[in-house]
Structures are given as C-alpha cells and as structure tokens.
Amino acid sequence: MRFGGFVITYHRPQILLDTLEKLFSQTVAPELIWVIDNSENLETDHAIASLLDPRIKYYQMGYNAGPAGAAVKGLELCEKEGLDWILWADDNDPPFFPDTFEKLLSIRDENPFCGIIGSVGHFFDRKKGVVKRIQSRLLERKTCVEVDFVAGGMSMLVSADIIKSGLKPDESLFFGFEELDFCLKASRKGFAILVNSEVFLALRENHHRTHFDRPLYKKKKNLAREYYSLRNLLFISDSLTLPTMRKRLIGKWAAKSLYGFKFGMGYGLQNFRMITLAFWHYLRGIKGKTLNI
C-alpha cells in the first residue's frame, strides 16, 4: 500500500512549512507530498526549495484556482505517482494527533467498497440540503461509521480507485462544499465513506463538542463565504438532480436574507446582498471565482 498526498496553499509559506513538518512526523507518514500552489508569486516555491526534501514536490497553478481547482490537479498528480491512498489537505489543517493517519488507514478494510476515509464526517439531508451532526453515542458503539461526506480540513484520504473511475472534483465550484460534492458523487458510484470513531470522538473531546447543539443561526464573520456556500449548494442540487433540495434551499436562504437584519442594518444589508447575488449567479449559471474571500 502506497500512501501520499497533496497540500493546497495560497500565500502562506510559513504555515505550509509547519504543516509539512507535522505531516511527515506522523507515525504512518506519507511517502511524498505534492504542494499545489495557488499563489501568483514565487515565495512558496523558494520556501519549498530551501527544504531540499525529495519527498516534497511542487506544482504552481499559475493563478488562484481555489481549493476545488487545486484539488483536481493534486488528485491527478498523486494518481500518476501510483499512490493507493491520497491525502487531500489544506496548508493550515495538519492532523490533530500524531497517529491520525495510522488510525484512519487501519479502517480501510472495514468495508470492501471503502473509497474515502476521514477524521470527521457528517450525514447530509439530500431533501433539505443541510448537514446533519452525527451523535456521539453512535460513534461510541462502532469502530467506524459510514457517513455522507468528510468535513473539510479533516484529513480526508481518497482511494486512487475513485480517480481511476473518472471522478474528479468540480473545479467550477472554486470554494465551498467541493468535498461534499466529491463525496456525494463518489457515493453514487458505489464507494463507501468512513470515519474513524476513535479519532472523531477524541477530536470532539479536545474541542469540548461532545454534546454540542448547533445554533439555529450564528452571525458570520465573512459573508462572502455565505455567498459561495449557497451558490454551490444550488449547483450541487442540479448536478445530483435533487429538485426538492433546491426548493428547500431557496426558501431557507430567502428567510436568512431577512433574518440577518436582526444583527444590525449594516450586517443585514451585506448579508442580503450576498444571498441575492448567490441566487442571481445561480440563475445565470455563473461559476468559478467571483468574490474575494
């Protein structure tokens, strides 16, 4: 079994170097890592070159392709390397525990159709278009749990069999829910998506979220992310032919566009603008990078 991966980065060379060090310090470390650089300058290239580490390979996109576009290239390069399991990672999300990869790979044979493994995952309501939290008591009963998708930044490992089947991320999404889209489509191809219950529970305990209840609405720090979330969920509902999900999303987000005024006129107007723009771009079929994050 050959294990390696790719790390997506954008103008954060020092954070990237710290993450690479942690990746190679794992009890089961990747044999190689491709750095997929969305930066427009050579700062990251120089930082990587200074390490003189043959395990690290570098690819510059030449433009900001977003996490989705960079993931397409990363999976492609790793599959060409002959890797069996591929880490899909961001530059600021190293594994929380030193034996994370060891524990994740230990469950790969729990399901003969296993195609994706992660530290944290969720169920996804395909009718409402909402993420559903997995109860801790379910994790406590099983070694691993089959989920609908692995959360972003949670050490997602992808089997090369998925790439060989012809599936790749939708680069037109640019940013937001690209992992969800990829996992849902992998599931439709018959691949199982698993999370390691021990790692999942340990992360909840470390972050004091064992009995966490998600609030109905939380004020957002970056409303551009809301734009990408809604726009991409609508496009995902179309690509997976989920008309009920699309209708529910429109109703829910229309209400959210007004609810934002509860937090003040300035926030309310910006929130309303972002949601309205997402609807407009969806109707016009506008994808890719449209706003700075």
UniProtKB/TrEMBL annotation:
Molecular-function GO terms, alphabetical: transferase activity
Keyword hit for Iron-sulfur: no
Protein name listed in UniProt: Glycosyl transferase
Keywords associated with the record: Transferase
Ranges where the Glycosyltransferase 2-like domain occurs: 7-143
Keyword Nucleotide-binding: no
Superkingdom classification of source: Bacteria
Top-level taxonomy: Bacteria, Pseudomonadati, Bacteroidota, Cytophagia, Cytophagales
